Amino acid sequence: MSDGEIDNSEAVALISEARCKIGITEYEMCKRAGIGQGSFSNVKRNRRRLRAEMARKLAYALELPMVRLFELAGILPRDGSQG
């Protein structure tokens, strides 16, 4: 992947897993997070990069570890101790 490409796949996979675990729809997740479903769709389809504000809202709505989501989204560098 080149520097200009967007790849939200790992972050979106974590978000989807958490959403399914608590049994809510994508619509309900976006509503709880206070984000537009269209905005999340653009992230999911790699049209837009997952930014800190949206990641923060999703982490709170899904009770995800924010640091982990930020790492997977490329907002924070990954912790080298994780495999």
List keywords for this structure.
mainly alpha; 434 Repressor (Amino-terminal Domain); 83 residues
Question: Please, could you describe this protein's structure?
Answer:
This protein has 83 residues and is mainly α. The chain has one domain: lambda repressor-like DNA-binding domains (434 Repressor (Amino-terminal Domain)), CATH 1.10.260.40. 58% of the residues lie in helices and 0% in strands. The chain is built from 5 helices and no strands. It has helices at 9-22, 26-33, 37-44, 52-62, 66-72. The longest helix is centred in the N-terminal third of the chain and has 14 residues, at 9-22. The two termini are 20 Å apart. The mean pLDDT is 93.
Order of helices and strands: HHHHH
Uncertain segments:
none
Number of strands: 0
Rg, rounded, reads 12 Å
Give the CATH superfamily.
lambda repressor-like DNA-binding domains
Q: In this structure, how is the largest beta sheet organized?
A: none
The total domain count is: 1
Q: What structural class do helix, strand and pairing data support? A: mainly alpha
Count, helices: 5
Strand content: under 5%
Mean pLDDT: 93
At the third CATH level, what is the topology name? Answer: 434 Repressor (Amino-terminal Domain)
Outline, from the CA principal axes?
A: globular
Oligomeric state of the chains present here: single chain
How far apart, in Å, are the first and last alpha carbons? Answer: 20 Å
Name of the level-1 CATH class: Mainly Alpha
In which range does the helix fraction lie?
Answer: 55-70%
CATH architecture: Orthogonal Bundle
